[in-house]
Fold each of these.
Amino acid sequence: MRFNQPDGTLARIATDEGALYRRLDTIATHGEHIIARLDTGEGTVGKLLVDEDVYARADKVLSEIEVLITDIQENPTRYFKFSVF
């Protein structure tokens, strides 16, 4: 950042504080919209937050994937066939 030059970052912020306010207001408005959608269960993340059944099923799938990965690591020949020729 250039503090001592009239075209530096702080100078632009100081001379156009209205633009900064509008930008921050837009960010806050979008944030409120996203949070409202999450609260009502919209989208994948919203459903995970609101619907306990969706969360439980997703948790079960992740647990089963962990078991599968562990079994693949411990018994790779059960899943993969290797041959040189």
Note: The chain has five helices and no strands.
Amino acid sequence: MSTDNNNNNHSSFAQKRLPESYGSGRSKKRFRLFGNLEDLDIETVKTMQSTQAILNYKDRNSLSNLIKIYDQYFKCDQHSTESRITCVKFFVQYHTAYKFAHYFDVKGYAKFIAEVFFEQTTEVFKEIVNLVPVTRTSVIKDIYQRVVNDIRLNVWFRKWNESDVSGLKERIANFSYCLEYDRFEPIGIFTYDYLYDIIYNGNVLAKQMLIVEKRSYRGEDNDDDDDEISIQKEDVEESLTNNIKLSELLLEKIISFSLLYDKNRDFHNKRRRFRFYRNHFPYFVDKDQIITVAKVSKQFFKIISKMIVNKHFNWRGDLELNNNNNYRYNLVRSPPLYFDYESIKYIPYDKGIEYANHMMSRVEVFTIESDESDHSALDSTSRSLQDFRYEDYEEEELDRAYRKAIIRNGYLVYPPAMPNLKDIIVFRYFGYEDCYSRLLSHIIMSTPNGDGHGIERLAIDIVKDVEGTLSANIEFLRPLLMIHSKTLKSIKLSYRDDFQREEYDQLEWTSYILTLFVQSIHCLFDQRKKTIRKGSYEAGFDVTFVGKPIVSLFIQQQNEILKSVHNISKPSGYKLRKAASYSIDDEDDEKRVCTFGMGSVLFGCFDSYANHNVSR
């Protein structure tokens, strides 16, 4: 179906249920057309005069920016119609067809939409009906439930019903139609008659129709790795209590051994991912073991809570860092040291930017597994895009929209700055387009590089697509080398399995990385040493500042003889050669590790000489 016909069909269908003022302005839906996001720009405006902060209403990737504008909306006076319109419009444009619920806070999302339902003016309310809704029944029901349980509903509904019943019916119909647009069948609960029955007849049973299953609310995949690291009060109260009390020091020693990650416990895909993570950062502890041991007794809970302050663990779940009322029941009481990208949906919209920054303030290790394999996969995708056990949306169309979104700017959410970030580890990176490269560049550029701050290590697992095409965009290495040269110690690029001999021989990556490196520090280099030794194949270079060693480039070939020494594509005036060889990872026969260039480039003296000025 052509785009024009598609839009015409949609408009004619919308007019059956929506007045012209709403239907004509409705945005193109996820299953219909992605559209041109550049057409959605709003001018940058000032926030409330009390802060005089400048918000960027064109940035639809930054979570920090969204949180600030979200907070601005709730602080706006009801009579500040223009400001409220701008905030709602941005919220709608931020949650475009490219955004999916697995990467944003669905609770904060539901709270905002429910709040807009009560808007006094139609001008503000009608902006929300342009929203591309989430494809999760649980989230939609939560929005309805928030409206029904709001203490304002009784007075609000009666006032509208007595003064403008047709306008009230229209608003309710538009609201539910917007949220249920792409469903096979409408939920059919949130109607004028339904709310009338609750308000005027006191029908308590009607409210129970919106109860959401706790399991499906987050829309998690059926994956053990997604268990939330949160323990409720009743879990602690009902924990076993031992009569024999051991000293805390002894228990800490015992418990510390039980928290080690068991690589044999996980499924194959998780074992591969965490093996890669642990090869580059061996200090991860087992999240599931943390929860299991913490629930043994109150004493164990207290000890675990104290121990994990300085541990790196995957905290996928809601954190209550400032909840003083239930502090004794909070397992995680300090900002985490480790942040996996899947946890970005647990950074709340509604607690303000200071809380979001506080959550990220201690992060030292950032990991991410790319979704790009789903973009080119021939079979089903790896994610559940609607609620567990629900089939309320066309699965093929939803998968198709998701595959397209993965490589589009707007799909990924950029996290708040991580000022103490040291390690970045990327798994299954294809590098289609520049979507993930932009995300990594944002993280790199938002990390400070002075006074003890700065990124030290990057490890990335590079994979071909199903057609055997190498597409990896590694432009993010440029800001990494430019900004974090003083602290950077190593970069390792690992190639996954089926790379051919001629692709290795080309050494495009080494050429590109070293060229960037030379360009970034603007200093003369001098080739000092070249060695080719016996056995498998071994080549090494000492690349130096004039008279000062700065980089030791050393690469080994263990199981194959791939002798490759080529001239590097280099700026005029530089004399530099490269050498590389490759090895097969003994722990994983499916992966070849190319430890070349920055893969084994050790910045031993980089800290001292990065700013050393040398005249040509």
Note: The first strand starts at residue 45 and ends at 46.
Amino acid sequence: MNRMSKKIKKEEILYLINRVISEIEKSYTEKEINGIIGLIYKRYKKAKKFLLEGGNPVEPSDDFIIIGGGRAYIDHYTNDQRKSNVMLDYMFDTEKMIDVYIKENRRSVERRITLEEIEAEERKYEKLFRKENHGYLGLNTVVSDIPDKEDSEAGYFEEIFYDINSKSLYGVRGRERINIKTKWPEVSLGCYKYPSNEKDILNDIKKVEERIKK
């Protein structure tokens, strides 16, 4: 039987909300739950609490704003989405079910996750990550992508690029994961392998910045 052909219960919505939360926790580390993912995660946790405490999805509430999260994720999240397919399926199922539930109760969907909220969340996490990375976005990521001793001896290396304007770093692996929508002014810092480390990258950045000042 089509589950949408019978009247939807709040318990069914809660079940799907739990599946989204579970998929996020399974697919992302605590440090990766940031930006749009962090916004979605927090909204779903609040929605779960709202329902468990007897809240009604029909009534407008700042604690129950998850409609539009799936579309927002696809439109604005630039990381690899392949590991998120199951999560997205559950998100769209949840949003569809909530939409139907509200229409069954003769109301329209009141609030959606907005682009402004997404950008504010991303700015907050960018500030945090820059602080943790000596002011350079992506430093920890490119350092972790440098091949270890065994791979380096086998001939592998990681070319690392530096975006001069945004002070961002990304490697070849990152370029394959990231969907860059604008052409960034960038320079190649070089090719790194074991025993290269964070200090080597920071020294090379300083050399580039000193050349730019001249």
Note: The CA atoms of residues 205 and 211 lie 10 Å apart.
